[in-house]
Amino acid sequence: MKSRPLLWLSIMLTALSCLEPRAGHAAEPLRIGVAETDITPPNGYPMSGYYHERLATGAIDPLKAHAIVFRQGTEQAALVTCDLTGIAKDLSTEVRRIVAARTGIPAENLVVAATHSHTAPDYFKDLFNHLGKTGAGGERARYVTNLIDRIVDAVVQAHGKAQPGVLAMASARQETPVSFNRRFVMRDGSVHTWMNLANPDVVRAAGPIDPEIGIVVARAAEGNQPLAVLSNFALHLDTVGGNRWSADYPFFIERSVREHLGPQVISLFGAGCCGDINHSDPSAKERNKTDMIGGELGKTIRVGLDRTTIITNPTLRVRSAVVHAPLREVTDEQLKKSKDILTIVQSGKPMDFFQQVEAYRLLMVDQLRQRRAPAEASRWIGWGLSHTWGGIGKELPLEVTTFTFGSDLAIVCLPGEVFVDLGLAIKRGSPFRNTLVIELANCVETVYIPTRAAFAGGSYEVTNSACLPGTGEALVEAALRLLREAATAAVAKP
Fold this sequence. Notes:
Helix content is about 35%, strand content about 25%. The protein is an alpha+beta fold and about 500 residues long. It folds into two domains: about 30-315 and about 395-490, no CATH class; about 330-395, no CATH class. Strands 1, 3, 4, 5, 6, 11, 12, 14 and 16 form a nine-stranded mixed sheet that branches. It is globular, with a radius of gyration of 23 Å. Mean pLDDT is about 90; it is low at about 1-25.
């Protein structure tokens, strides 16, 4: 007769031998594929990022779509970061639909994110016309067709290249100052954006920065060849200006990564929560330059690359949730006034910037709440036109997506331009050792997503926010709920 310890061991071994491997379980190898495609528009195409038309006269560096695909058992997920100012909901919907049909990756498991370069194309109206089959054709129509195709191609290529891989992670702190909170508390209690400390009415910055750079390295399991680096940092991409295409400072990060690991490495940059963060040092007269910012971030990332930790049990879990965010209200009187203001702007006459921003936002939100005739709406706005969400009603169904790997790494993807305090709240509450938070995922129609406290202070970002106060906190709650579910699954015994 077996002793009691041996009897229990026999029972446990028999039970374990009957268990089927679970989809996404670490017993299945994690497969990783990466690819990039060029999405640079032709010269003469309009540039995004500001409230006036700029036509591109050339390129400083190329714009790209960078894709990474994860496959494990029956679980599949993909992240594609694009050198664009924002991702229209129509664009992410179309890309996800096509990719799902061509690869089998569930649409909800694909995140299309923008880096937020302000030297990228203003494709929104052309996309709306193209999908509605109302465009006039020509070079602009060809570009939006190519934009969709090339983003799709990046994901499809990455999916086809997926091979057994290894993930490693690191967290680095950016010590050289390149990011600054751009909102300031004034002596009269108001909050103003874009101030300088030389102004005697400035009391202090209205919020923090996030100095952490999250780093994920993907390597081939065979040969240990580096495949990709995903970096994540909270700093607005508006450091170039002018009339030439540029990916902004992530171009210099890519150059630094490739110098360190090899020219074959794909460098993906995920914009952190930087709705209230920019590169203008309020204590200095001049702003930091793009090459300086990218170079300093590249140096810090290279230090992080030399001290990465391998994720030994990279079980992939993908989760998503929908937050129903209430849109701000728009009255008929506000609509009429907004059209009058934008008529003045279109005539070339000067207009107060904040009035122009508010007028645009009101017309955009009205188009979302109750679809107006496209010809009428497109007279006033470009980005904000939407087939997917036009006339959706009082709420936007905003997606929050999390990719987690074992108990070590989480990637959180949020919509809109999110304030840094909200990203920090997710990081503080995350049960994972390393957490990257990427904004501007799958839609830009929310525009800014401030905190409740920031709404009370007002200024530019609040003026330019489509949703009511509390939206940001609801996104944080949804993200933390998804992360806790994933962490619970990670520590649960089979």
